[in-house]
Recover the amino acids of this structure.
């Protein structure tokens, strides 16, 4: 391994871990988030963090020469790690284009820019193929993606973009550029008014309760509820802004939308 580049990397979220493995650089990863599921072999690495907290003693013991973090929500952890003398790179991707940029940037950080560019280009081709396949659907159903249930939070930008690529039309397009969850809070009445034909929920950290969604006051006449089109996609597949969302996440969205579109 080339000592010019980092050799002992701690990843505080899953998407950078998965990207490094896909680049053939998984042996550089020495510590991961406790929420890491992909790839399965990464689950055997020492777990050093949740999303909002980190075990600094465990990180110290791993002696990393690079720590990778994500978003403003990890700002306190990042600040603490910088004060402890560690080099930290924080990504903040919120769109499909920014996810692809993150992959290319990460490749540059570890000295495999060409492989990272090829990986990102492959994802771009696959997404374009899905976009073209979606053109053949009989219709584009209205989709409400629910990122959280109390309060109701609509999907973040990369999710809404993947809904469109998969063949659906998000019901809150005006919120797609809102980066913070609190900026994407919607009311139950808003959802009823926009009459989604599909509801896809992914509540990070807890299981989706379809019955509870269907029982919300006034929702019985929402087409998605009336016709039984309430679905869950696990957060690890759609709310991680990395390879999982661009592959398994969008695949599941397309399957759901195809099923509904062909019945509408």
């Amino acid at each position: 391994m080339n000592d010019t580049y980092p050799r002992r990397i701690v990843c505080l979220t899953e998407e950078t871990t998965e990207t490094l493995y896909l680049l053939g650089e998984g042996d550089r990863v020495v510590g991961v988030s406790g929420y890491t599921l992909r790839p399965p072999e990464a689950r055997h690495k020492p777990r050093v963090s949740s999303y909002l907290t980190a075990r600094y003693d465990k990180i110290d013991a791993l002696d990393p020469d690079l720590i990778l973090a994500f978003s403003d929500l990890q700002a306190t952890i990042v600040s603490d790690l910088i004060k402890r003398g560690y080099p930290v790179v924080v990504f903040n991707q919120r769109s499909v284009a920014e996810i692809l940029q993150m992959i290319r940037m990460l490749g540059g950080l570890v000295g495999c820019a060409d492989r990272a560019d090829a990986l990102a280009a492959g994802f771009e081709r696959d997404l374009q193929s899905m976009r073209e396949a979606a053109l053949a659907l009989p219709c584009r159903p209205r989709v409400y993606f629910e990122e959280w249930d109390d309060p109701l939070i609509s999907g973040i930008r990369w999710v809404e973009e993947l809904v469109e690529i998969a063949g659906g039309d998000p019901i809150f397009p005006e919120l797609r550029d809102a980066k913070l969850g609190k900026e994407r809070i919607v009311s139950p009445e808003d959802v009823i008014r926009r009459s989604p034909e599909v509801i896809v929920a992914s509540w990070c950290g807890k299981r989706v309760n379809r019955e509870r969604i269907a029982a919300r006051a006034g929702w019985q006449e929402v087409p998605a509820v009336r016709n039984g089109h309430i679905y869950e996609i696990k957060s690890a597949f759609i709310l991680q802004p990395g390879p999982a969302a661009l592959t398994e996440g969008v695949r599941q969205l397309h399957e759901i939308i195809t099923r509904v579109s062909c019945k509408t």
Summary: Residues 10 and 196 are 41 Å apart (CA to CA). The chain has a mean pLDDT of 96.
